[in-house]
Q: What sequence folds into this?
């Protein structure tokens, strides 16, 4: 007999357990916009023109459907977090197939895998985009570098908390599940990182 999961979305777990493929399709559709937001934010720019976010989501859905019984038997996180993990792994696999497998310098490409290592660059680009217009190229580039330096000075996990909360729009509980943190720890890291980032952005807005 399968044990019940010690997670908050007990009803969704039972939906998967009882509903089979129809439940997988329904829940994936429910979370599709959130998963697409993650893919668009995390996708390596070098995949542009080769892979569309819809391609990633389609492949992720097939993998989720294939492995759903493993999740039902051994649930450890909420359904959305599990689907996000599966979609994230699919994105990494696609990156490997399209870029790393064709790269001459594999070690260099591995160092540029999508994920937390690229978060400071992605965050900086997103944040500076809100502060400057494309026509302000020189100001934009200068601010981009300064914000990125500030982000690079943070702990990697703090940058990741910011990315998850602001650009993937996850709740604090979801961030804790994704990063394997206690909920209070995830909240404290977010407040600390946000305060530090706000100081940097305030300086950029004032032109100091």
A:
């Amino acid at each position: 007999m399968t044990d019940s999961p010690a997670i908050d979305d007990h009803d969704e777990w039972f939906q998967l357990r009882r509903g089979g493929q129809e439940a997988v399709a329904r829940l994936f559709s429910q979370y599709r916009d959130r998963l697409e937001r993650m893919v668009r934010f995390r996708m390596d720019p070098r995949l542009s023109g080769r892979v569309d976010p819809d391609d990633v989501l389609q492949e992720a859905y097939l993998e989720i459907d294939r492995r759903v019984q493993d999740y039902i038997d051994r649930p450890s996180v909420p359904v959305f977090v599990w689907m996000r993990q599966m979609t994230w792994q699919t994105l990494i696999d696609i990156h490997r197939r399209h870029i790393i497998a064709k790269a001459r310098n594999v070690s260099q490409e591995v160092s540029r895998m999508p994920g937390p290592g690229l978060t400071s660059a992605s965050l900086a680009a997103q944040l500076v985009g809100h502060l400057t217009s494309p026509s302000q190229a020189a100001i934009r580039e200068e601010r981009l570098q300064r914000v990125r330096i500030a982000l690079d000075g943070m702990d990697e996990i703090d940058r990741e908390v910011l990315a998850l909360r602001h650009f993937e729009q996850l709740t604090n509980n979801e961030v804790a599940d994704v990063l394997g943190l206690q909920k209070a720890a995830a909240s404290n890291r977010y407040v600390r990182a946000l305060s530090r980032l706000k100081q940097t952005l305030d300086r950029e807005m004032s032109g100091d």
In short: The first helix runs from residue 10 to 42. The domain at 10-109 is CATH 1.10.1740.10 (Rna Polymerase Sigma Factor; Chain: A). The radius of gyration is 19 Å. The chain is about 70% helix and 0% strand.
